[in-house]
């Protein structure tokens, strides 16, 4: 089986599992995951934070974003463009967001573009990931393209039940520095071992 076929099978497994999990309330777990992010020294040191804005089926990042503003952080979020291209824009509150491509909340047109070099820490989404920090996305390649050539530390957040034994990876797949679930904080990439 090719890597692409493996990824397709893994996405199918995750989506089936998500359907079975859909009726549960995830508020307490999501809060615990966000608290895990907030506990990282990399977050505390960072002046500018990159974070995805969650969809209903994803881990709710609104609490994390609001806490980052309270902590005086500069917050940037992604906006997707054509052909897998993504850019980051500064937002000052949830009111700076509107439904964009794919129904994802994105920064409004007046939000300022922020260069990747200005970002100190990133929170990256996944459908699933493994304990080594390799993520399984939706397959659009937006995050892998965006992260290519950046050097800010990254944390991927995932529900414990959706973790994979091993993610099928391709040469362009980017390894994250931390994997955070509601049960643990895993420091996985060499060079970022402090919590």
Automatic annotation (TrEMBL):
Q: Which reaction does it catalyse?
A: (6S)-5-formyl-5,6,7,8-tetrahydrofolate + ATP = (6R)-5,10-methenyltetrahydrofolate + ADP + phosphate
For this UniProt record, the keywords arranged alphabetically read as follows:
ATP-binding, Ligase, Magnesium, Metal-binding, Nucleotide-binding
The top EC class is ligase
The record ties this protein, via Pfam families, to: 5-FTHF_cyc-lig
Under Gene Ontology molecular function, one entry of this record is: 5-formyltetrahydrofolate cyclo-ligase activity
Give the EC number.
6.3.3.2
Q: Which cofactor does it need?
A: Mg(2+)
Against InterPro entries, the record matches this protein to:
FTHF_cligase, FTHF_cligase-like_sf, NagB/RpiA_transferase-like
Top-level taxon in the UniProt lineage: Bacteria
Q: Give the family per the record.
A: Belongs to the 5-formyltetrahydrofolate cyclo-ligase family.
Query: Could you identify this protein by its name?
Result: 5-formyltetrahydrofolate cyclo-ligase
Q: Which organism is it from?
A: Anaerotignum lactatifermentans
Q: What is the lineage of its organism?
A: Bacteria, Bacillati, Bacillota, Clostridia, Lachnospirales
């Amino acid at each position: 089986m090719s890597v692409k076929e493996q990824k397709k099978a893994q996405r199918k497994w995750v989506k089936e599992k998500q359907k079975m999990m859909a009726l549960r309330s995830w508020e307490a777990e999501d809060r615990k995951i966000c608290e895990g992010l907030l506990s990282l020294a990399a977050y505390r040191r960072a002046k500018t934070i990159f974070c995805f804005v969650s969809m209903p089926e994803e881990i709710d990042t609104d609490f994390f974003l609001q806490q980052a503003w309270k902590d005086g952080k500069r917050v940037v979020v992604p906006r997707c463009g054509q052909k897998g291209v993504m850019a980051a824009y500064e937002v000052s509150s949830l009111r700076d967001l509107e439904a964009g491509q794919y129904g994802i909340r994105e920064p409004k047109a007046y939000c300022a573009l922020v260069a990747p070099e200005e970002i100190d820490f990133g929170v990256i989404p996944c459908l699933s990931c493994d304990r080594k920090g390799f993520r399984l996305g939706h397959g659009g390649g937006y995050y892998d393209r965006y992260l290519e050539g950046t050097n800010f530390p990254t944390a991927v957040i995932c529900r414990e039940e959706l973790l994979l034994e091993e993610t099928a990876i391709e040469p362009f797949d980017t390894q994250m520095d931390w994997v955070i679930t509601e049960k643990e904080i895993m420091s996985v990439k060499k060079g970022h071992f402090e919590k």
